[in-house]
Input
Amino acid sequence: MSELDPRPETPASWAPPSLPSPASGPPVDPPPSPSSPHPQAPYGYPPPYPYRFPVVPPYNTYAILATVFAFAVFAPLGIYFGYKARQQIAQTGERGSELATVGIIGGWIISCLQGAFLLVWCGLFLTFLAGAP
Output
């Protein structure tokens, strides 16, 4: 062969591997050993293992209530439930810290807006009352 030929030289005695005859059938795995907790895996595959879903802690109930109360019911209760939820989340490790923060911030914003509206309404009411003959 020439130097430019990329194929390596093969010895004359080399022959391709022979395939098993179809009459012999597929190879049979040995039975699982009694000491193994898992059955024998087929050749070339990793052994099976029990799949466990990751354990996710639940949401804190007060955190959910803080968000709901801040925007839909009564904003000062959203503030209270938000601070209470933060305390419980720090102790128990539950989820919902973001919800508690949303409840606190939203509760303060809505409470300030409601307070401003109440002051304006009371001022207008007193103005109309004072102007009445």
